[in-house]
Amino acid sequence: MTKTSRFATLPAPQSVKHPVSDTRHGITRVDDYAWMRAENWQEVFKDPTVLDPAIRSHLEAENAYQSALMSDTKALQAKLFDEMKGRIKEDDSSVPSKDGPYAYGTSYKTGGQHPRFFRTPRDGGAETMLLDGDLEGDGKAYFSLGSADHSPDHGKMIWGFDDKGSEFYTLKVRDLTTLSDATDVVSDTSGGGVWNAQSNGFYYTRVDANHRPSRLFYHELGQPESADRLIHEEKDAGFFLGVGGSSLDDFIFIDCHDHETSEVWLLDATDAASEPKLVAARQPGVEYSLTEGGDVFYILTNADGAKDFKIMSTPVMTPEPENWTEVVAHKAGRLLLGHGAYKDHLVWLERENSLPRIMIRNRHSGEEHAIAFDEEAFSLGLQGSPEYDSEVIRFSYSSMTTPSQLYDYNMRTRERTLLKTQEVPSGHNPDDYVTRRLLAPAADGETVPVSIVYHRDTKLDGSAPALLYGYGSYGSTIPASFSTTCLSLVDRGFIYAIAHIRGGKDKGYAWYDNGKRLHKKNTFTDFIAAARHLVAEGFTSHDRIIAQGGSAGGMLMGAVANMAPEAFGGIIAEVPFVDVINTMLDDTLPLTPPEWTEWGNPITSPVDYAYMASYSPYDNVGGKAYPPILAVAGLTDPRVTYWEPAKWVAKLRELKTDDNPVLFRINMDAGHGGASGRFSRLEEVAYVYAYALKLVGKTAI
Hints:
alpha+beta, single chain, Peptidase_S9_cat, eight-stranded mixed beta sheet, Methylamine Dehydrogenase, Chain H, hydrolase
């Protein structure tokens, strides 16, 4: 275990105990720290100043404690920040994307924290700055831009912002001729809107008091928010409502979904008075999404047992399921991730054997070909094109050693044009690094992919420290992509590793299925297997492995700390979802009802309750030795509420038998994503990395 002498000996904040009991399914649980949950949490999200003074005092004491124990790393944090900032091209700009008479892009100015949105004439020319995020966010402790969407006539733009970190976004409308905002203001939204075809109104989802997007409204320009018309309401608290537009600007897609079921309704984008038309009624476990292809819709779905998805088509005028025809067949183990349609081509992104691939099909001849790469581990991103009548799409490529590259790809000629390579101003030589894909054996015979990168000079004799990152929930796949931040660890002799554990879709949908609900513990044992494989293969040793995960990955951190504390030299849990069973029992919290399909419903199911209680990190803290632990959170986080890590830290300190410190750092001005602004975020990364370096004794500047 890591030597505690690396931290000063200071008394940790004392947490008072006010026991609260809860009995479900004949089982009584006692929560000594339930008082940390503010009764007025909805108000706190919108106005942090109304937080109970006793809770605020406790959180501030936690911040003072971690600051004192990390004070000897201030110079290291500054050095790490400068390194990471030096790898960012400060005045970076995207390659503008053509749409109609213009090409739209984003840029940053030197020293700027937030993006700026600009456009040029379609084929090049002077830039017009449409929105300056730094100007809009000036003077705010927190500021995050939502989306910025120009109208079909290119005369206006909807843009959104959140200035609390609680993800309640305000929408405004900007005139792109005068570059001034109109009187139109819409509050408490999800962050974006979709224009109608005439560019005189837009659709948006409003977030309710429990932070659930459940109602779709239409806003007519020039009218007050109070006059907005309710178009569609989702009555099931377990479903979220989303809205999107078609590439031809003639349909509005209303998407109702949880984590395993979806339902789509259509609106005529040319008629603000139109009523939603149902495509296919929701069926438990069946997902589908639409993209327009002229006179047909292409439908990506797992219907009829197509676990790894297939693509169907249906006439636009008769989109009901009885008219669906198969276009791309289901193939077990080949997961279809997303699709797009253009005048002459159908495009989709797929993953097979843990590696991504972009597929192109000629809609007339049926001929297919792939865009693929040869590295052992890499990441692909499909951006497509905003224009339907296009034979050129855009995609990105990177690996753990190769900076991101942006390409235009002609689907007809198969010509690949490199538009931009991510610039690393301080310098980067890919040949200095090695990336590999390992397969860690799990206890049940499965193999867990592990992507690693290390400096070519790092000795592989078990002495190197390692940072092992994991997530493993919601089917999310952590790509083996380029990261400028992790180089600060790798250049100091770290092996940086990503465990592609069950709960993600790295090896197909079954990989996700086998890491959720009553199979959730596979996620945790896979991560432990990855750690043990790194040791068995001579890359590192257990007391040199620092585990890291955030959000649901923070729950992973809490679980593995309970299950195999000896396997790790330290734990970094960012915005950690650790109070699983209490949260899943509270149906007033923002994400609880939609999460029941992912974790189970402990309110109605004694089986789900018992299984969840058997791994919930907060409930399973025990009288044992733990490695050093760092928890990081945000006060206004609507996804993982601040009291989860606060309670977890208090219980760890109460019950554990070792002297290793447990640190809790909470950003009192931010939410789930941490600090806003690209450089403020780097300061948080520098802090976390300084902690990891401190644990392994590599604090030399």
